[in-house]
Design goal:
- The protein has about 625 residues and is an alpha+beta fold.
- The chain has 20 helices and 25 strands.
- Helix 14 (about 330-340) packs across helix 15.
- The longest helix has 20 residues, at about 450-465.
- The protein is elongated and about 90 Å long.
Length: about 625
């Protein structure tokens, strides 16, 4: 693996020769190269003055170089050249990311790049934003065989966001994918008892912080997945321990049942980050479990909390939907029937459903079409029900989630071990028919009119959670009514899909420059089930195709690709909404086109037939990054 070091003045002549070889690689003629030679020459004094670094392999062979010219707040990436034999091996990416890191340390706020047209695609893929065309060729003369004009790019170097540094103390962490374990502690009738979907969702453990050191996962994951994610997000080596629990909850218990693994994870001196707090995780991490710690995960308890906050005043534009606890199934029928008769839509909720499970929105037309409220409720999971007013009640027959404007928003933050509140921000959620499908985080994701009151109310909830003794990540979900009002609907005392988008956005900002929008899409349909090798090829191709747009593609949930109805969870990131939308559309189209031209797939074993299972509890026999 290549590493970066400071160049030495004695290397100036050899580095100049490397620059000229790299320039000639793109087919420029001798006349043009001769005209560039003096400007591209590196002199011994330039090595320090221009902050030149080199990338070298394990044998000490220099593979490329980069300079960082100028001083804060404006600097330029004056040189970035790679030995022709090393092009395509990640050397340019390594040097570029190092230049951004050094720019941050120097206090640079704008980094300008005047790129050879042949390198424009590289800089676009690395996250630089194209500006206007620069002056003609490097020498200032349009020479035969030379570029017509340089392409100007800019990037805004930034450090990792303060909240992201505070989340894991500024370092790497052990991520424990205990999604099923968290869900199971509520015994909610709307949740899958086998927790297969939760084990797929546990793949998001890769993104529980901006940079993991270890992943602990219930299901076995493809080798190529972790390698691609590491490459896309610039992670160092990550250890993976997977295949610990195929069905049912109990990941923390499965780790504790393997003393050597438990000792390795807890003895590394790194923070352990779970999806959410549970009693078994508390035993694994040696953290006291407090009764009532997750009280406000309950939708009715959260509603009471919201009411107390609003009773104190100071939150104009926030409206709380009325909520009634149905003491029996018959009581719920009567409430829904009465509201339907009055032309009102109703939200039915279970106490602890996650991701939209246990939440049903009923319009009066739907109640009539089903034959009445009793017929509707027969189809819903058993268990206690909350009956809630639908804010912004739609016209009869209108899809409650089909609003043209933003409908579902969320506030994300966390309370640290000392009880301090940290705000990650606000995000726009994609919710259809009461079911969460994804979210977008980043600048401009939430409309301006909603952001200030949403952040203020989310902060107020966070202060109450801190005062109650809760420590960890939380969010507050809202719906809008189309008239400029926000209605808080629930809190989640755990990580969530939007929290993953915030984590990845923070990482991409530090890696590629400020201003990333990141979208997580929970379910992207695949046109066919693929063997693991072909899934790796598909994801690698999507990463390349998105990079050409200036976007980043990261497969987030790969194990769904092996289900009978195959799908992927994905992350896409970009500096603009237009590029983000284009990247998502490309990913969905290419994923759905998989298998086009083939007949119906033959029945396959439940998991990948071409590779044996990983020994349970063992370290994966592979370098992950």
């Amino acid at each position: 693996m290549a590493k970066v070091r400071a160049a030495r003045p004695a290397e100036a002549e050899a580095l100049t020769a490397l620059v000229m070889r790299s320039k000639a690689y793109w087919g420029y003629g001798p006349e043009f190269l001769a005209s560039c030679a003096e400007e591209l020459r590196i002199r011994p004094g330039d090595v320090t003055a221009r902050r030149i670094v080199v990338a070298e392999d394990g044998r000490g062979t220099v593979l490329g170089l980069a300079s960082l010219d100028g001083s804060a707040p404006l600097a330029s990436l004056g040189l970035l050249f790679v030995e022709p034999s090393a092009i395509g091996r990640g050397v340019g990416r390594l040097l570029y990311r190092d230049a951004l890191r050094r720019a941050v340390e120097l206090g640079v706020r704008r980094l300008v790049i005047e790129a050879d047209p042949h390198a424009a695609g590289f800089y676009r893929a690395m996250g630089a934003v194209a500006g206007v065309a620069g002056v003609s060729g490097v020498s200032g003369v349009a020479a035969p065989g030379g570029p017509e004009a340089l392409v100007r790019f800019e990037v805004a170097p930034v450090p990792l966001a303060g909240w992201a540094r505070a989340w894991t103390g500024g370092g790497r962490a052990v991520h424990v994918g205990n999604v099923a374990e968290f869900n199971a502690q509520f015994a909610d009738a709307s949740l899958d008892r086998e927790q297969r979907a939760a084990h797929d969702y546990a793949c998001l453990a890769a993104f529980y912080s901006p940079e993991p050191a270890v992943l602990v996962l219930p299901r076995a994951v493809p080798r190529g997945w972790t390698e691609l994610v590491c490459r896309q997000l610039g992670w160092a080596e990550v250890e993976v321990y997977d295949g610990l629990v195929e069905r049912g909850p109990g990941l923390s218990d499965a780790v504790r049942a393997r003393p050597a693994l438990a000792a390795l994870l807890t003895g590394a001196g790194l923070p352990l980050v779970p999806w959410g707090r549970t009693r078994p995780f508390g035993l694994l991490a040696d953290r006291p479990w407090r009764e009532g710690e997750l009280r406000y995960e309950s939708k009715s308890a959260a509603h009471e909390l919201f009411a107390r906050i609003l009773a104190g005043g100071g939150h104009p534009g926030i409206v709380l939907p009325a909520q009634w606890r149905a003491g029996s199934r018959w009581a719920a029928v009567r409430l829904v029937a009465a509201r339907a008769k009055a032309g009102e839509s109703t939200v039915l909720k279970s106490e602890h459903g996650v991701g939209g499970s246990g939440t049903t929105v009923l319009t009066p037309g739907e109640v009539r079409a089903a034959g009445g409220a009793r017929a509707v409720l027969r189809r819903l999971p058993r268990g206690p029900l909350l009956v809630e007013e639908f804010i912004g009640s739609p016209a009869d027959g209108h899809d409650p989630a089909g609003d043209d404007g933003p409908r579902d928003l969320t506030y994300d933050g966390f309370v640290d071990a000392e009880g301090r509140l940290h705000e990650a921000g606000a995000a726009l959620m994609d919710v259809r028919d009461g079911c969460y499908r994804g979210a977008t985080a980043g600048p401009g994701a939430v409309p301006g009119w909603a952001e200030k009151p949403l952040l203020a109310f989310g902060e107020a909830v966070g202060r109450e959670l801190a005062a109650s003794g809760y420590r960890g990540w939380f969010d507050v979900d809202f719906v809008t009514d189309g008239t400029g009002r926000l209605a808080p609907t629930e809190t989640n005392l755990r990580l969530t899909g939007p929290s993953i988008a915030f984590m990845v956005a923070a990482r991409l900002d530090a890696l590629r420059g400020a201003g990333h929008l990141v979208r997580i899409a929970d379910r992207v349909e695949l046109g066919a089930r693929l063997p693991e090798a072909q899934l790796d090829e598909l994801c690698a191709a999507l990463a390349r195709d998105c990079a050409e747009l200036g976007a980043v593609f990261v497969p987030a949930i790969p194990t769904g690709a092996f289900d009978p109805a195959p799908w992927l969870g994905v992350l896409v990131g970009a500096h603009s909404r237009e590029v983000l939308d284009a990247a998502e559309a490309l990913v969905r189209a290419r994923a759905l086109a998989v298998g086009a031209g083939f007949g119906p797939p033959e029945p396959e074993p439940e998991r990948r037939p071409e590779r044996g299972p990983v020994s349970r509890g063992s370290r994966r026999d592979r370098p992950v990054c």
